[in-house]
Write a structure and sequence with these properties.
mainly alpha, 5 helices, about 0% strand
Length: about 140
């Protein structure tokens, strides 16, 4: 992929998943039990926060001017023990079925896959641009 698939892809994925999470919460309870929808929504929010902190961690740890070690350590303290502890407690909520939490956790990856497939199918990855140099070489 080309420059159109840069780090902003993660930001766009987070926004799309957030909108999807709100749609699931707003309309899902009309067709499914409330706690099942809340489990899916909670899993989606946990996945969004997880990817957000992972992206921040990568941005501060891998930089041209060198890693910001203090920020990286702070983000690692937030992401690993606190976020995964929150995920553990989500799994321990007795009203939440594991299958619905897994659907919520994995919805972020489904959004990523669909966004990539959409870019490939629509030709937005930049590989379908005409090669103008090829025509100039034939004329010579």
């Amino acid at each position: 992929m080309t420059s159109s698939m840069d780090i902003s892809f993660i930001d766009r994925t987070l926004k799309t998943t957030g909108i999807l999470a709100l749609i699931v919460l707003a309309f899902g309870w009309l067709h499914y039990p409330f706690f099942d929808i809340l489990a899916v929504f909670s899993g989606m929010i946990w996945g969004i926060i997880n990817l957000y902190f992972l992206a921040l961690l990568v941005r501060v740890a891998i930089r041209p001017e060198g890693p910001d070690k203090a920020a990286a350590l702070g983000l690692m303290f937030i992401k690993f023990p606190m976020l995964y502890l929150a995920g553990y407690f989500l799994l321990k909520v007795t009203q939440f079925e594991l299958a619905y939490l897994v659907i919520g956790f994995s919805s972020l990856f489904a959004v990523m896959i669909l966004k990539v497939l959409g870019r490939v199918i629509l030709g937005l990855d930049g590989n379908n641009k005409p090669n103008h140099n090829h025509h100039q070489q034939e004329a010579v």
